[in-house]
């Protein structure tokens, strides 16, 4: 299988090339991952770390994007980490999670795939393994953290057990189920109007004002050491030689902890990070040799959707891990088939990476371990997963056929598709302007060649057909759109990434209307970080630059496609 492995940019695709970054000016105010700078009379935001384009990395599923570890044992601090992990007091709140064989998948792959079931923890994720050593005085003053997810629940439970007051700052968009469960665990929830960055800045400020200990989600030696206990358990639980341990990577605390233990006691075991293709901050940072901020992140696997990895976690990963593979969305279904358990997308990521890696390298008769890191999922997310499952697992194909609208054409179309093809969904729209009709349809299919033959057959019958199955845009939106192309002039189709802030939709409509006609909107929330929004706008060609200015001022990431 050919490996496509490029870091593409407009000017270069070399693996070793480094982009030019804008010169920095004096930083005056720091707020999480951005810095405010003054330039003459204006103040604006720049990032203190270079920004990398999320979409500049492409590689085959399962290909190990290598890291070349320097040091091999965590450097000077490696021994200290080992001691801290061995002495970490996480078992006040966490259990030793089971290591289970995924027997069906193991049989299919010819590899023993072991699952380290961190989704079995009391808060349904590993996030309660944070080995904080707080003095009596610190416990009395209390702790504070900001999180919309698993970290919040871990801190709430651990604090409750230690009899310590915990404030958990969460974005107001956090699903009720999540913040209520934090409250049930004893946390005092503060809902902030704006997104994660503001919540974090607020939590840090309150920590300073009230003398509380701020508990960061990943970038702290105690957090890393606590999570290293997972490595310690795996090493004890699996006596046979381990080829690799696959670990989901967000900010890098989990993998840094596991690597800090394993590379000390069993350096031959590969430690492989798994990141989603659309949230790959660790692999990009390893590539450039320093931390970078991603220009955007996808939020399907919201537990790992971070724009920038931690400083300490990156230092450890650079020294210890063997590389990163990119995972896909399919492993949630594998896990369901295997154990009848549903993981959250981030929780299934390592399994996806392990499976893809075994297939890519044709691994046989080895032991690999995947950390199933969490199972906190709500019904919205479940709905989305079930919808994506069939398309993602290539059990159905999405096709579009464009045909001349004339008597009998729909019948001709149906005949070409054939009587045995099972339609799952069918959308037909007549475009009166050029007398063409668009049919958008989903069909169940078994093999790739079957599908290719169908597309070919349609094309030779002058029914221009395209296979849209692998297009995420289609997976995310087409199911919910009625009709196809409309009879409008100058219609642009744009895909915006909204932050999950109340009012984003209104702000967008306000930005363009009434200057231009908004002809289509499809918004679907896809997690607590943001949403993909498809917007159709009628913009005459000579107004396109003005439109671009307007879209840029709006401040949301977008791509635009002229569909005419
Ligand atoms: C379920 C789940 N898996 C993996 C991760 C990634 O952990 P880290 O940020 O330490 O890399 C997280 C982080 O919160 C998570 O919630």
From TrEMBL:
Pfam families: PALP, Thr_dehydrat_C. Its main location: plastid. CDD domains: ACT_ThrD-I_2, Thr-dehyd. Its EC number is 4.3.1.19. One of its GO terms (biological process) is L-serine catabolic process. Keywords: Amino-acid biosynthesis, Branched-chain amino acid biosynthesis, Chloroplast, Isoleucine biosynthesis, Lyase, Plastid, Pyridoxal phosphate, Repeat, Transit peptide. One of its GO terms (cellular component) is chloroplast. It is found in: Plastid, Chloroplast. Its cofactor is pyridoxal 5'-phosphate. Pathway: Amino-acid biosynthesis; L-isoleucine biosynthesis; 2-oxobutanoate from L-threonine: step 1/1. It catalyses: L-threonine = 2-oxobutanoate + NH4(+). The keyword Signal does not apply. Residues 397-470 form the ACT-like domain. InterPro entries: ACT-like_dom_sf, Ser/Thr_Dehydratase, TD_ACT-like, TD_ACT-like_sf, Thr_deHydtase_biosynth, TrpB-like_PALP, TrpB-like_PALP_sf. One of its GO terms (molecular function) is L-serine ammonia-lyase activity. Belongs to the serine/threonine dehydratase family. This is Threonine dehydratase. It comes from Solanum pinnatisectum (tansyleaf nightshade).
């Amino acid at each position: 299988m050919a490996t496509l492995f490029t870091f593409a940019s407009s000017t270069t695709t070399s693996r070793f090339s480094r982009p030019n970054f804008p010169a920095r000016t004096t930083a005056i105010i720091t707020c999480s991952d951005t810095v405010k700078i003054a330039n003459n009379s204006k103040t604006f935001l720049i990032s203190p770390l270079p920004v990398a384009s999320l979409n500049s990395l492409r590689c085959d599923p399962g290909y190990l994007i290598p890291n070349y570890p320097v040091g091999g044992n965590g450097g000077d601090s490696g021994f200290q980490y080992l001691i801290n992990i061995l002495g970490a007091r996480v078992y006040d709140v966490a259990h030793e999670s089971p290591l289970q064989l995924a027997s069906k998948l193991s049989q299919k792959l010819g590899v023993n795939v072991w699952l380290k079931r961190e989704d079995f923890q009391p808060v349904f994720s590993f996030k309660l393994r944070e080995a904080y050593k707080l003095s009596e005085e610190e416990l009395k003053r209390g702790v504070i953290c900001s999180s919309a997810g698993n970290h919040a629940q871990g801190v709430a439970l651990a604090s409750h057990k230690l009899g310590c007051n915990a404030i958990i700052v969460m974005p107001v968009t956090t699903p009720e189920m999540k913040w209520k469960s934090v409250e049930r665990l004893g946390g005092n929830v503060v809902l902030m109007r704006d997104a994660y960055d503001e919540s974090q800045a607020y939590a840090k400020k309150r920590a300073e004002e009230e003398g509380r200990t701020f508990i960061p989600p990943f970038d702290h030696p105690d957090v890393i050491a606590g999570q290293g206990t997972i490595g310690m358990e795996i090493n004890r639980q699996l006596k046979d030689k381990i080829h690799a341990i696959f670990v989901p990577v967000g900010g890098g605390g989990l993998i840094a902890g596991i690597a800090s233990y394993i590379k000390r006691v069993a350096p031959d075991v590969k430690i492989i990070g798994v990141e989603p293709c659309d949230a790959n901050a660790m692999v990009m940072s390893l590539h450039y040799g320093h931390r970078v901020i991603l220009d955007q992140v996808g939020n399907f696997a919201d537990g790992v959707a971070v724009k920038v990895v931690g400083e300490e976690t990156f230092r450890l990963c650079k020294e210890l891990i063997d590389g990163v593979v990119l995972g896909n969305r399919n492993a949630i279904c594998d896990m369901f088939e295997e154990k009848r358990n549903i993981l959250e997308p981030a929780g299934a990521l390592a399994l996806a990476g392990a499976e893809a890696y075994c297939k890519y390298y044709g691994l046989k008769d080895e032991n690999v371990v995947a950390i199933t890191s969490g199972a906190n999922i709500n019904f919205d997310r479940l709905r989305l997963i079930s919808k994506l499952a069939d398309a993602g697992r290539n059990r159905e194909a999405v096709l579009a056929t464009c045909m001349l609208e004339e008597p009998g054409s729909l019948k001709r179309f149906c005949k070409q598709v054939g009587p045995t093809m099972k339609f799952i969904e069918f959308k037909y729209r007549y475009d009166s302007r050029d007398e063409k009709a668009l049919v958008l349809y989903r069909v169940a299919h078994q093999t790739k060649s079957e599908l290719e033959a169908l597309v070919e057959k349609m094309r030779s019958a002058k029914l221009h057909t395209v296979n849209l199955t692998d297009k995420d845009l289609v997976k995310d939106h087409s199911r919910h759109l009625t009709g196809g192309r409309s009879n409008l002039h100058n219609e642009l189709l744009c895909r915006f990434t909204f932050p999950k802030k109340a009012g984003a939709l209104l702000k967008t409509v306000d930005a363009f209307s009434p200057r231009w006609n908004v002809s289509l909107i499809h918004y679907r929330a896809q997690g607590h970080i943001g949403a993909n929004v498809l917007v159709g706008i009628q913009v005459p060609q000579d107004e396109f630059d003005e439109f671009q200015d307007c879209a840029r001022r709006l401040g949301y990431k977008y791509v635009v496609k002229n569909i005419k």
